[in-house]
What does this fold into?
Amino acid sequence: MQENPTWLVLLIFAMIVVLGILLIYKLSKDKTKKVSNLRLFIQIVAVVAVFMGLILGPFNSPVFQPLGPSPRSHLLGSNFLGNQFPDGISVPILACYYPNGRTVTCPIWQLQAYIFPFWNYQVGYQVLYSTSGLEKIAIVLGMIIVGAIILGRFFCGWLCPLGLYQDVLTRIRKTSRLKHLRFSDKTNTALGQSRYIIIAIFLILSVIFGSYAIFGHELIPGTITGGPQGTEAGIVSNLNEPFCLVCPARPLCILIEVALGAMNWSYISKIVYGPFWITGFYITSLNLAVLIAVSSVSLFYRRFWCRICPLGALTALFSSFTPFKQIALTRLKKNEEKCTKCGVCKRVCPTQAYAVFDQKGGDVTESRCILCARCVELCPYEDALEIKFAGKTVMKSRNWLEEKKPS
It folds into this structure.
């Protein structure tokens, strides 16, 4: 079995990241693309280090050897939480649990799994839990809240692998010279509201499936957990974590890792259930259908998934609404006196988060804003827009129109 990556490997990787950032700032002469290039680089780095698990290991664990070299057994959280919770650090990005192990894990998976089937069951997927379902959920929510207060939806704009995938689709559209489309304000608002409905539906489904463990009464026959994994009863093994059966990040991640040789397709294709893979442990027909649909729409509507993402909704809930907005550390600020209502910020926003244009000034961060900084990068007025962290300016708009004029 391969040993864990050494501190030297991590140090070399960190040095490459720092060097890449410095080169981007040094070599990017077009000020309207410098931040975008930097964001793309950081997104790729995040995919390598977090989503793909290529830096955080270990690899080829005997427990999951048929799955391939993808890391699947490293409980990073146990290093500082003192027990075997969580199944990876709860970071609000869609870093799928199934192929990527337990270094960083999607909180949506955790919230569902700790309701059903592992509410008070002591054995998970090769994990011995020392906490109750309620305690595990409290820890997950605590991590989401802390992350959201510190960085807000920066996770969505700069770190989420599905966000990178959508940005690549946007670049393909631009290269193909296809016109991008916009939703009406009414439709875009409805899409934003649907995020909370989506997560509520799937969490309620998890509660229904786990009703016996939680309330002592089985609402749906076949949902009493049992067996060595706690999942071998009736429909349980097919419907664990219901949102994961339709999440587009799951098949995207798995297919990419199979293509790179990090997962064995011969093994994955066996772990499916039902006709047309309607349910399954790794890939389902629903997963693939949703991924195809999201990809098709995102090719023309920028960051479509981000508008309906339930994980983005949770992050927004704990960073863009009272009382969390009052203590959020990362904010988009607008100087009303320097804004001329030119509309550039409104045109370039990938999620049509129009508060930056509509509001007069002050903190214009809203739930749809993914803090990608594109509006700040393209705003042609000095200091009209700025991103602040803990009260300190991280980035501000500049009069790049004047800078382009010949001397």
About this structure: The longest helix spans residues 185-209. The chain has a mean pLDDT of 84. The domain at 330-404 is CATH 3.30.70 (Alpha-Beta Plaits).
